[in-house]
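Technical note accompanying the year-one report. For the benefit of new consortium partners, we illustrate the data format agreed upon in the data management plan: each record pairs a sequence with a structure-token string. No post-processing was applied to the example shown here.
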Amino acid sequence: MAPRDRSRNANALMNSAQANSFVRLGSIARMALLTIGLCAASCLAAAQSPASTQFAAASNPPALLNAPGPQPAAPEPVVSATAKYVEPGWQVLPLDAHGKIVQTLHDLYAPESFLGFVSAAGYSQLVNGQPHYGVDRGAFGERLGAAAIRDSSQDLFTGAVFAPMLHQDPRYYVLGDGHSFTRRILYAVSRSLITRTDDGRQTFNSSLLLGYGAAAALTDAYYPQGDRTAKGTAKTYGASIGGAALGFAFHEFMGDALETAHLRKRQPQ
């Protein structure tokens, strides 16, 4: 074959690979936009209900649940119904099924959720891990779309489906700096296995484990063909549980970091 013909074939193959990459990226992007659009529609409908507004502190609030750790001398105001992370000393109202759905949908659009999508996609791109889209120019975009779908479905299954069904509280209660570093780390990473019931008792975190399992199974609908195996799904599930533990540890100490940087007033303990 003449050098000119080989050059033409190489260019054709490169253009074909780039076209396939953009087609895959477009498919993932459409799925991500569909998921986000459905969530937005549900969130808008739920937001029109009075139950989605903030819980105001009342003279006789029903069944207040206190966050762990030492309590302040005077009760703090009741926190927002959409707050997912509860600081020590805060008082919260129990969430009914509707409140859990609203809180979950609200959390999907928090800035930290988008940061999580980018972080997960960036790490997977760096190590060329699951989902295995390769390392070409379109691969990061595909991973970003897949991370958005996966993480959003994890939150929806956990907080909006299984938590109401099993009467479990989907919020994370920060232990706070009144405890040792080791205890806080162990507490945080254990929250992927331990949570609270609606009446404040500790229980096995079946809502998270089932929710993440359902989301891992759903990846067979949009992950590359090579990752659509029992082993690949199990690997996704294990990595997601580990990611949840790291996320809880991050939020356990995020308040301390903000206070140290003088970006937030010190919370009463």
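Partners are asked to follow this layout when depositing records. Residues 38-62 have pLDDT under 50 and may be disordered.
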